[in-house]
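Hey team,

Filing this mostly as a record. A colleague (T.K.) asked me to run one chain through the structure pipeline before their review meeting, and I want the input and output archived in the tracker in case anyone asks later how it was produced. No errors, nothing strange. Just documentation.

Input sequence:
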Amino acid sequence: MNGAQPPIKQTMLYIGVLEVELYLPEARSLKDRRRVARSLKDRAVNRYHVAAAEVGDADRPRRLTLAFTTVAGSHSTVLQTLDTLERLAYAAEAEVVEVRRALRSAEDLWG
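Output structure:
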């Protein structure tokens, strides 16, 4: 052995984030809002194996902002997952106000 390190194999990694702002016209309390948030987050996590969190202002019963993130080895897989999550949001008992998404490779993040 000459002490040289073997070359590091570069793995492609893609990270996608989807943020969805929803208006809940039927929500009368924070409890109603939490019910909708929990339902959407649980469906996303259990069906699509993503991370989900409620973000934004937590004191407005009729507004809800959720963020989802996914990681995969291919750009197209991340895009498909983000598209599926967006469709899930549009199917919810709420009105979609705004959708924001980002997709980056690990190389973009770490240089």
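Quick notes for T.K.: The chain has a mean pLDDT of 91. Residues 30-48 form the longest helix (19 residues).
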